Amino acid sequence: MPTFIRAHGAAIPAIGLGTWMLTGEACTDAVEAAIGIGYRHIDTAIGYGNEREVGEGIRRAGLDRDKLFLTTKIPPEQLASDDMLRAAEGSLERLGVDQVDLLLIHWPSRTLSASETIRSLNAVKARGLTRHIGVSNYTIALLDEAWSATDAPIVVNQCEHHPYLDQARLRAATAAHGTAFVAYCPLGQADVLDEPVIQDIAGRLGRSPAQTVLRWQFQKGCVSIPKSSHPARIRQNLDIFGFEISDEDMASIDSLSSAGTRICNFPSIAPDWDE
Known about the structure:
This protein is of the alpha/beta class. It has a single domain, classed as TIM Barrel, CATH 3.20.20.100. The chain has 10 helices and 10 strands. It has an 8-stranded parallel sheet. Strands 1-2 form a two-stranded antiparallel ribbon. Strand 8, helix 6 and strand 9 (about 180-185) form a beta-alpha-beta unit.
């Protein structure tokens, strides 16, 4: 079973299956395969358009619901109080569950404050639709503002993170709140896997480049949610707990980071990034 990252009462499996850009039967098959392999953390979002397929994969896998950590996210255009409640109810219907484990604000609103939207998310939690709440794509300032207004702990800040974008300041600020940092796009959409330093470290460890990057993130205290539709890669991505990367090699991977190297940037909805 995966090692857990703990934050404010939430035990989050350190490796989850990301489902962004997975659709149709391929999505259902990937979720079913991942759970069968041993994944206990599945990540989706309203904006991915695949909650029904994710739910079907969960049902096919036949795992007891209380053994799975399920995350979904509400898009920025549905963050007003009544809209958020309806959005969350719709997610549960599509997923076929009574409650998710973690409900996130997917992107900060351009029209509503972080204080207002986190209070609305608290209300959704109070209705019992989610066990835990969190945010995604929040800067240091937005995270601080949300924490100042929340009643329930913000257990996660899910942001892009990979060797090209280490986000050290944001990770430190997130950790200062006791909030877990979840890395999306953790493999840099595979671009980083061709880096010679990654290839060299992986070769010496007898591991794949993907396993090496995911282990680097785990040793930094991150949860990672790599996406794959290939069972062999899904299995491989989970197998990162039987080896360690040396401090010297961690520093070598750190050296790949360059400010502003974002792969998953959407200027129309993105905040003013910290780096």
